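Quick review question:
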């Protein structure tokens, strides 16, 4: 079983390899350090709603592109 520090480090390395974003490492450090839901979302729903919208937006682009490629 990994210790907490090793888990955070390996998680961040994987994220940075996959996404190439260095600023996400701080966000996931804080997330894995055990912030409460209210602290993480700065007023309950601002940040979480933005994150959900962003992921839905990118997922819809990926799915649309996949269908477009398969139709050709």
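Suggested answer, residue by residue:
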């Amino acid at each position: 079983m990994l210790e907490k520090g090793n888990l955070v480090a390996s998680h961040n390395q994987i994220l940075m390899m996959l996404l190439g974003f260095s600023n996400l490492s701080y966000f996931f450090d804080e997330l894995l350090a055990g912030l409460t839901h209210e602290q993480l979302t700065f007023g309950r729903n601002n940040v979480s709603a933005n994150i959900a919208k962003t992921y839905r937006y990118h997922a819809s682009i990926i799915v649309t592109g996949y269908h477009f490629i398969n139709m050709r």
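Why it works: Residues 46-71 form the longest helix (26 residues). The radius of gyration is 16 Å.
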